[in-house]
Specification:
Elements: H1 3-28, H2 32-54, H3 57-87, H4 94-113, H5 121-145, H6 149-168, H7 181-210
Helix pairs in contact: 1-2, 1-7, 2-3, 3-4, 3-5, 3-7, 5-6, 6-7
Keywords: Membrane, Transmembrane, Transmembrane helix
Transmembrane segments: 6-24, 36-62, 68-86, 98-116, 122-141, 153-174, 180-202
Length: 211
């Protein structure tokens, strides 16, 4: 295995571990939107790792679907609604949670299997992630208001990196990175960073709102 592919596998394991650990942590906070979404990321990265190690196509198909789910709906929509628990005190019922995930899964099926959306799909992903980035700017503002300057700064760094990854995902190829191993290493590491910081920033804002 080439060094860059080994590093990609390590980045995959990093995202797998962080999404699993912090997904469970959010479930313990009874935030099922964020908890389950991070576990979807865990499912995606575990299957990606199997594909990278074996070349098996079924794990790749599962990972591809989960990736489309998270990029199109999971993080931009479900992630925003989950974070609104501490910015807007939004706590949907379990039934609403189920309906949100079901609707997002149906929407993802259209994104993945419909030829009609293939052309505008990359632009849709960027649009959705940009909307999420705008909300994260507001989230950082709320952290500043709560006196959490360090978390606010880290959130801004994370959203800038995440937006950059989203913008170049389907539109730019790093020179010499024909198999996109370098890009995906950067992307997986960025997402792992954001998952970890999102949990601690959420906790900081939660404590501030309680106080």
């Amino acid at each position: 295995m080439e060094l860059k592919n080994l590093i990609l596998c390590l980045a995959t394991v990093l995202l797998l571990a962080t999404s699993l650990v912090y997904g469970v942590k959010f479930l313990r906070k009874r935030n099922y939107l964020l908890g389950v979404e991070w576990l979807v990321v865990t499912l995606s990265t575990s299957n990606l790792l199997i594909f990278l190690l074996s070349g098996a196509q079924i794990p790749y198909a599962i990972s591809h679907f989960c990736d489309a789910f998270s990029r199109g709906f999971g993080i931009p929509v479900i992630g925003t609604l989950g974070l609104m628990a501490v910015t807007h005190r939004y706590r949907p019922s379990k039934l609403v949670d189920v309906l949100i995930f079901a609707g997002s899964a149906a929407g993802t099926a259209v994104l993945v299997y419909s030829d009609a959306v293939a052309g505008p799909l990359p632009y849709f992903y960027v649009l959705m992630w940009t909307v999420f980035s705008l909300y994260m700017m507001y989230f950082a503002y709320r952290l500043l208001r709560a006196g959490e300057q360090r978390h606010a700064l880290i959130v801004i760094v994370g959203l800038v990196a995440g937006e950059a990854i989203a913008c170049i995902y389907d539109f730019y190829r790093i020179p010499g990175d024909n198999d996109m191993a370098i890009f995906f290493t950067l992307a997986l590491t960025t997402w792992a960073f954001n998952i970890v910081e999102m949990y601690y920033a959420y906790g900081a804002l939660e404590r501030a709102e309680t106080a």
